[in-house]
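Input/output pair, single chain:
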Amino acid sequence: MLLKNSIRKRTFWYFSFGMLIIILTFALLFSRYFFSLFRERIELEQTRTTNTMADVADSIFADIKQSAYFLSCNEELAKTLVNRSNTPLYVQRNQVTKTFNITTGTLTTTLMRGSLVVMLVDTQFELSGDQQGDFSLTWNAFSNHRIYSLQDVLEEDWYLETARRKGQIYAFWDENNPNHVFFAHTLRSIRIADARFNSDLGVILYMVPKVVLSEILDNSRVTDNTIAMLVFGENVFLSTDPERFPPEHMGGSLDSALSAIPSGGKTKDVVIDGQRYTASATAFQGDWKGVLLVPANDVWVYVSAPIPVMLLIVLLLLVIAALISALFSKQLVDPIIRLSAAMVQVRDDRSLPLPVEAPASKDEIETLYSSYNRMLEWIQRLLEEAVEEAEKLRSAQLKTMQAQINPHFIYNTLDSISCCALMEGNDDIVVMVSSLIAILKYSVNFSRTTVSLREEIDYLQHYIRIQALRYKSGFQFICDVPEKYYSVRVSQIILQPLVENALFHAQRDGDVLRIRLYCEEEDGQLRIHVEDNGTGGSAEQLNKMLKTDEEEGGIESLGGRGIGIRNVNTRIRLLIGGDSGLHYEQLPNGGLDAIIKIPLELSYGEEFPAPSLPQ
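Output:
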């Protein structure tokens, strides 16, 4: 009964937890989807509003440019200013004022109809001198007259900037008129044909109520706390939050944030003075931008509106999932309990039980029974195979013990030959047989994976003794290995094949063949060199052979001489790995330098006595 309750409880909680994970996952995915959907909607609304704000502001500039264009193209205005007929100045002024009023009265923007406009005549015209001294940036000056002299503003900063822009609108504030915005545009006539005058007519100047631009920004709010602003050049010209973003404000976090906002209305998340915003900007009229900054908190309030409804749905789904888990666990647990009771009967048997009869339910429970019976069959088969493998191992051990007798027989025979040679006084045979015995004992000892470099050099010395007897004074072997490297661990029998390759294949005409063994350190590696002064070897061919498989003809192409060095290279790489191994370098004198690279960390850390050299 305890078992039954335990399984049922665990199954219920497992399924409930699984359903909870699934429901929460889907809830998270749907919430992210709806969040992104609502976020996209508010971003689209912000983009649309930014573009609309820029379009409305742009229409004001379009009217100013249109008026400037009409004045520049007006032939009557050009003739009146040139005044070839010597019209009295007061009559000339009235004619210019009349023409100016007719031309600037064609404004189409409703917002501009409450604005005042004047013309400052260039100093090259006689009329300009007559009007000198009457202009100022005041409401009375704009409302009383329409024509003034440019001479009165030649030193003003706003005029100098307007002249520098050459046909572009320049906007500015006047500290004495904080409720108005001023727009200036130069006038260049294409109708003046008199050589006495150039094409400069003067400047057209608008005084626009600040409320006109403020209404544009106020109507561009996406949320209650949205900050709308007009940016002119590198400065904030006007904003709905003048305390945080006053006119002429720029630099710091605002400068970097605005430069990161793409033009065209696209939105981007920015941080300005520690506050997160969703920002959008639309450029118009060259240096102007309409910018909207929507606080991140306002965006969250907007997109989090459906969260309560989603939480209610998730709660309802959790209740339904709990009911389904309880029903499903009951249907699943009962058959498992019956199967568990059947397996308890054979739990304590040391021998394999007989297969149990599977139910005829044709479902997963029947699969469990079938799998259990197949498991018993596999275990039985594995036991039989284990017995067979044990027998094979015993047979192999017997053969190995028998094979150990053969080297001992060879050692005893060679010892007998050495004794006979000693009795006959043939010292060369004694040395050769003694060295051969040492070589055989070293080469058939497979109990170690690595040996010290000292042991490898000792083994090589025995080989050198034999070859010295064969070649007499035909070659010279030099060992320059310092004692500090004798403890380094190396693979067994790696030096002898390299010396043998140098003896049998290096050609030397007239001079004695010299073979030198030495070591050096480089980048944490020990480089073991076996170099000769022969002339018959090619480092390029040997290195190519070391990288070529035997099936591709690499060894046969070299007459079979690569078997030993290839074996050395393979064993080193298998034992150490990395970039260790064997490669050849061509020496300047034509000889070869066989280089083995092994890491120095394989050292025993203790000193060994130097190996004795052959006498």
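The first strand starts at residue 116 and ends at 121. Residues 9-62+221-309 form a domain with the Beta-Lactamase fold (CATH 3.30.450.20).
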